[in-house]
Amino acid sequence: MGKLILVPTPIGNLEDITLRSIRILKECDLIFAEDTRVTKKLLNHLEIQKTCYPFHSHNEHKSLSNAIDKIKINSTTVLVSDAGTPGISDPGFLLVRECLANDIEIECLPGPAALIPALVASGFPCDRFVFEGFLPHKKGRQTRLKAIAEEKRTVVLYESPHRLVKCLGQIAEFMGEDKKVCVAREITKMYEEFKRGTALDVQKHYESHPPKGEIVIVIEGNNE
Ligand code: SAM
Fold first, then answer.
1. The pLDDT value given to residue 224
2. Closest ligand 1 atom, CA of 158?
3. What is the whole-number distance in angstroms between the Cα of residue 187 and the centre of ligand 1?
4. Which of 10, 33, 120, 133 would be a feasible disulfide site paired with 89, CB 3.0-4.6 Å?
5. CA nearest 151: which of 116, 177, 169, 125?
6. Is the CATH number of domain 115-219 3.30.420.270?
7. ∠ CA 137-82-139 to the nearest 5 degrees?
8. Distance CA 109, CA 116 (A)
9. Measuring CA to CA, how many Å separate 145 from each of 115, 142, 149?
10. Alpha carbon of 133 to ligand 1 centroid (Å)
11. 157 CB under 6 A from ligand 1?
């Protein structure tokens, strides 16, 4: 029976892959990737030639049973996502759950995930925090925002650039205009930026400077 190893990949700067991750990518039998074109670019950069199969959440049932069959007959299978740690706000967790249901051993290497540098550099307490991932776009969004408004711990969200201004407006609406936030954009990339301030001020900034790229929002918890 084979095993599945989850290998985190850089969220921007290609130097952020660990030596162990490179070794495992070289030694494994095959790789499941969220987008094989994205992974091929990384493998080319690392001068690794390896068979890559897509693993995504479309046609979830078929993808899962195909993947489990391949993992069982190979010694070591790797799962990577487009960036960061597989399973964090991407379909990786479905495969982990299915492997465990099939008694397949799981290993997860430590490595990049966008939430950690955003949280730590925000300046808000990071001894306890809540990761909310992406908020739902419509149904259930207000309920989640109301729950976050009550949260004492630091809260971390993933958000798309075209929804950032709206989201900051909702944070101001549900949590108060003076709620402190930190927007971390393009972490580890050329235009990395951290904007810290009240929800209202940071919203105004991005209204006049429409953001591009990838974004993490960190929200200060309610002081006890
Ligand atoms: N698995 C990834 C991880 O470990 O962070 C997250 C995958 S999720 C589909 C993609 C989201 O992660 C982006 O929309 C953005 O919110 C966040 N993200 C990824 N890379 C980032 C970066 N370099 N800077 C800021 N946020 C990033």
1. 57
2. 16
3. 9
4. 133
5. 125
6. no
7. 10
8. 15
9. 18, 5, 6
10. 9
11. no
Q: What is the topology classification, in CATH, of domain 3-108?
A: Cobalt-precorrin-4 Transmethylase; domain 1 (3.40.1010)
Domain with CATH 3.40.1010.10 in the chain: 3-108
Element (H, E) at 3: strand 3-6
CATH 3.30.950.10 boundaries in the chain: 115-219
Copy the structure tokens of residue 34: 């969220």
Which of 216, 217, 218 for mutating ligand 1's site (highest number of atoms within 8 Å of CB)? 216
Contact 18, 111 (CB under 8 A): yes
* Gap from CA of 73 to ligand 1 centroid (Å): 32
User: What are the pLDDT digits (tens) for 44-94?
Assistant: 999 999 999 999 877 777 889 999 999 999 999 999 999 999 999 988 999
